[in-house]
Amino acid sequence: xxxxxxxxxxxxxxxxxxxxxxxxxxxxxxxxxxxxxxxxxxxxxxxxxxxxxxxxxxxxxxxxxxxxxxxxxxxxxxxxxxxxxxxxxxxxxxxxxxxxxxxxxxxxxxxxxxxxxxxxxxxxxxxxxxxxxxxxxxxxxxxxxxxxxxxxxxxxxxxxxxxxxxxxxxxx
Length: 172
Ligand SMILES: Nc1nc2c(ncn2[C@@H]2O[C@H](COP(=O)(O)OP(=O)(O)O)[C@@H](O)[C@H]2O)c(=O)[nH]1
Ligand SMILES: [Mg+2]
Prior knowledge:
The chain is α/β, with parallel strands linked by helices. The protein has a single domain, classed as 3-Layer(aba) Sandwich (Rossmann fold). The protein is 32% helix and 24% strand. The chain is built from 5 helices and 6 strands. Strands 2-3-1-4-5-6 form a 6-stranded mixed beta sheet, with helices on both faces. Strand 5 (101-107), helix 4 and strand 6 (128-132) form a beta-alpha-beta unit. It binds guanosine-5'-diphosphate and magnesium ion. Residues 9, 11-17, 30, 33, 107-108, 110-111, 134-135 line the site of guanosine-5'-diphosphate.
C-alpha cells in the first residue's frame, strides 16, 4: 500500500520539522524548503510518500500540481499565529475533494493552546482530522505520520461529509 500525502501551510509553521522529526529521529536545524521535496516513511507495510512544500506564494501552482497526485492532504498551522490557520481555510476551500483524506496539524502547542482552533476546525470542517503537535512531544513526528497512515487507510464511508456552508472560517 502506498499513500501519497502533501504537507501544506505557511512558511515557518513547522512542516519540515514534523517530517524530519519522524524520519531522522532527532530534530536538526531545518533549512527553509524551496518548492517541493519528497520524503518517505514506512509503517505497518504502508509506504507514505510525503511531499513537503514551501508556503511561499510563488509555489502556489506547483503545490496544486503535486496536490492533484495525492490522496491525503496535511495542512499545518502555527497555534501561536492565528493568521496561519486562515491560510489553511483558504487552501481547503480551494482544494476540497470528497475522494481525499484531510488532516490539520495544529503545531507549536508549546507556545499556545489548540483548544479554540480544534473546536472551530472540527465544527466547520468535519471532514478534516484535527491533530495537535509540538516539537517537545516525544515521538511527535512518528505519532503524527502513523495517525495519517492509519486514517488514510480507513474506508471512505467512515469519512464525514461537510454539513455547514464553506468559506466561513474567517479568523477574527
Ligand atoms: N516552539 C516551537 N517551534 C517549532 C515547532 N516546530 C517547529 N518549530 C520551529 O519553527 C521554525 C520553522 O520550522 P520549519 O519546519 O522550517 O517550518 P516550515 O517552513 O513549515 O517547514 C523552526 O525554527 C523550528 O525549529 C514547535 O512545535 N514548537
Ligand atoms: Mg519547510
